[in-house]
Amino acid sequence: MKDLIGVALLGQSGGPTSVINASAAGVFIEALKQENITAVYGAVHGIKGILNEDFYDIGQEDLEELKLLRNTPSSAIGSVRYKLKDPKQDPSEYERLLEVFKKYNIRYFFYNGGNDSMDTCNKISKFFKKAGYDCNVIGVPKTIDNDLYGTDHSPGYGSAAKYVATTFMELYHDATVYDTPMVTIIEVMGRNAGWLTAASALAQVKGQGPDLIFLPEIPFDIDKFFEQVKTMLAEKGKVIVAVSEGIKTTEGKYIATAFLDLYRDVRKDAFGHVQLGGTAQVLADEVAKRTKAKVRAIEFSLLQRCAAHLASKVDVNEAYNAGRKAVLAAVKGSTDKMVGFKRVSNDPYKIKYALLPLKLTANTEQKVPIEWILPDGKGMTQDFIDYALPLIQGDDKAKLEDGLPRFARLKKIRVPKK
Amino acid sequence: MKDLIGVALLGQSGGPTSVINASAAGVFIEALKQENITAVYGAVHGIKGILNEDFYDIGQEDLEELKLLRNTPSSAIGSVRYKLKDPKQDPSEYERLLEVFKKYNIRYFFYNGGNDSMDTCNKISKFFKKAGYDCNVIGVPKTIDNDLYGTDHSPGYGSAAKYVATTFMELYHDATVYDTPMVTIIEVMGRNAGWLTAASALAQVKGQGPDLIFLPEIPFDIDKFFEQVKTMLAEKGKVIVAVSEGIKTTEGKYIATAFLDLYRDVRKDAFGHVQLGGTAQVLADEVAKRTKAKVRAIEFSLLQRCAAHLASKVDVNEAYNAGRKAVLAAVKGSTDKMVGFKRVSNDPYKIKYALLPLKLTANTEQKVPIEWILPDGKGMTQDFIDYALPLIQGDDKAKLEDGLPRFARLKKIRVPKK
Questions:
Q1: Residue B182: half-sphere exposure toward Cβ, Cα within 13 Å
Q2: For A32, A129, B55, B332, which has the most beta carbons within 10 A of its beta carbon?
Q3: Residues A324 and A287 reside in one and the same domain
């Protein structure tokens, strides 16, 4: 195997997490140490930055600031939601990527993202190989949804799960404080996989969580839900519900759409556009009509994916190490792989880093095993708790400056265009 | 002055905060030390618990658990939203309170709450005095709204302000991550006073906060707002807006109501009830109609008042001390007072505890000084920053157990009814 000498490039892609920058720190700091890497670039807004020859020169950043990336949420070099065309239909974008890689002598490419990004990585890797261009391409996983196939879990999930569990515990204390009937419906991200909503079960097993937990893996029985809420209200006066944004009715419809079908003439804006409320809000509106309880809908919205002040230490470390391992694997000659985790044991928690074929992980969603989900929204089995609990351990957050987090401040010096 | 010997009673009232239990810890732990206090009770759901003779016997709790109350959010003994009738119109409830106080020999009464609670305290104190019943009544302030008159600030505000500022910084990183136009409108609690929304300026001065900040103290010019958003979108592609839930139009209408007047036939549910959206959501819907940007509304909802994991150390300490000082003042003979803070200096930050006449603080709202608010939603003056910054300093949170906060677990043993 001949030595690959050239530039290393990192791109960040998709929705941010609390620790995607921890992976960036791992890639940058490790790549800057490598003899075969002549320069380290960051793609400005992922794949778009490459197409536009728009790069930050990471070598000009202070090492101390790069270290602060560990605890800085979101994507420091800019993210993107952009799907490349299928190279079989239209190879022009891939040809452009190849042209740019050649022009800047980019020989190491790291892409930090979810399912779509691993698919992109895989296609780029294959295209370059076919074109005879040597470039080692390694994917670094990230997703709060935890839906990447092939790895035990993904960086980003642990911190988001810790946010969800902690916040459910706090909300439990708030939402049960009065002696009047109250229903609180809390919406958690996750269109198809319910991993993050399931994390509310970590609060539930402490006796400080939701009464009902609904994941998209199980069809949502609307009528049964209303009956459950009514029964619980009568029994104890307070009901807290965790719902995944992506729960669907037994007919396979999203909740907001389902209610639209029932009440077709309403929920339109001034111009007649249909307004799709959040899942929690729609359910809350309907519960309010059916009971005399006070009802409140809460959406964690972006907060659950950027709350770096509540990051899990395990997650931050694994995200950082995933970035480092990607670089180390690439300089040793690996390509067309994603860094993944294999769990060795739960207690004590131990994982091994592994290199998975990109093709394996690309575009396959890893859902919550059905056998880990208790029936009737009652929560999760001990298997899930044993799986998730190690991932939320420890704190690791930015130090305070004026009582507020001191996040990384990059100089963001552009690489001159060639 | 004769020695008052008898039971001490604490009630918690109104919306929870992250530190109302820190004040409870201060009251309980200090009261348990006092020779003249024969027992320490907690009223179950505030004034309702007293009317129902429903008390927890705090003397039976473990001291270690009482100490954990410092970092446990919300109201551990239950809160209440219940306004006593005016004693001049109907003295029956006050007579009942007096009957209960006499029956249990309650000689020290501490009520932890906001404006309404201080008014309740004041009326109870006056009624007991008139009836010749010796009982020292001390109010302990609490409110995330910071609208209590007479005190420099109130326990609960510092932690909520820290939550708001920190979360705005994190959301800034998330909401600016793509290279596509985006408007994010974030709603903060505060019906009439904008203190909490103003805390977003602490993130703004770090360059990681909202572009526009709107408080209820200043009429909200809807047309101007849309123009500002459009101009900013054209200039920099991203706009982040902080709005108080209570902002009103120049005609004095809440935002949701104002838009209802414009689009009277929409925003009704299946039964024709008008649906009042949140302020942020209504503005977001309207911005979405007027621009091509992606628009998102976020509500901090209950999270901002129960996020004990992000409490300010200054706030936790002051809340705890306010509880302690209330007990010490009462046993020394003070009554009909509220514990308040007087600021000695900003840098170094120093306050003095003071006893304020309950009448002074009851039912008078302390709003943000107009001269601290920059015109056109541009933020806050340095005077506000100097005022607020010391209040969010330091961390003080529950230690972790299984990666999650170990909140207090009280035994909640009822006092036998007499």
A1: 16
A2: B55
A3: no
Mean per-residue pLDDT over chain A, rounded: 94
Residue of A nearest to B49 (CA): A179
Q: Are residues A282 and A320 in the same domain?
A: no
How far is it, in rounded angstroms, from Cα A189 to Cα A391? 18
Chain A residue with Cα closest to B403: A393
Do the domain assignments include residue B193? Answer: yes
Nearest Cα to Cα of residue A28 among A62, A73, A71, A4: A62
Mutate to test the interface with B, among A71, A157, A178 (most CBs of B within 10 A): A178
Domain hosting residue B37, numbered range: 6-143+308-364+395-405
Query: Within a domain: residue A189?
Result: yes
Predicted pLDDT of residue A269: 44
What is the token pair recorded at A155? 């960086």
Q: Which residues of chain B have pLDDT under 50?
A: 264-275
Check which CATH number belongs to the domain holding B165 and give it: 3.40.50.460
Evaluated on CA atoms A334, A340, A344, A349, the torsion sign reads: positive
Catalytic residues of B: 145
User: Which chain B residues are Cβ-neighbours of A165 within 8 angstroms?
Assistant: 403-404
Q: Residue holding tokens 């608010």?
A: B373
Count of domains for chain B: 2
How many Cβ atoms are within 10 Å of A291's Cβ, its own excluded? 17
pTM of the model: 0.96
- Reduce the DSSP state of residue B31 to 3 states and report it: helix
Nearest partner of A326 among A336, A315, A317, A316, judged by Cα? A336
Question: Based on the domain organization, do A50 and A138 belong to the same domain?
Answer: yes
Which listed residue (A62, A86, A90, A145) is catalytic?
Answer: A145
Report which residue type is found at A7: V
CATH code at position B337:
3.40.50.450
The fraction of chain A above a pLDDT of 90, given in percent, is 87
Q: Which residue has the higher pLDDT, A258 or A325?
A: A325
pLDDT in tens, B45-58: 999 999 999 999 99
Give B304's contacts (C-beta < 8 A, 6+ positions apart).
B144, B160, B163, B164, B167, B188, B189, B196
Domain co-membership, B73 together with B191: no
> Are the Cβ atoms of A266 and B268 closer than 8 angstroms?
yes
Interface test with A, best of B13, B79, B81, B170 (most A CBs within 10 A): B170
Average pLDDT over residues A227-238: 97
The answer to whether residues B143 and B191 touch, using CB atoms and an 8 Å cutoff, is no
Distance between first and last Cα of chain B:
30
How much is the average pLDDT of A81-109? 94
Is residue A270 over pLDDT 50? no
Identify residue A83 by its one-letter amino acid code: K
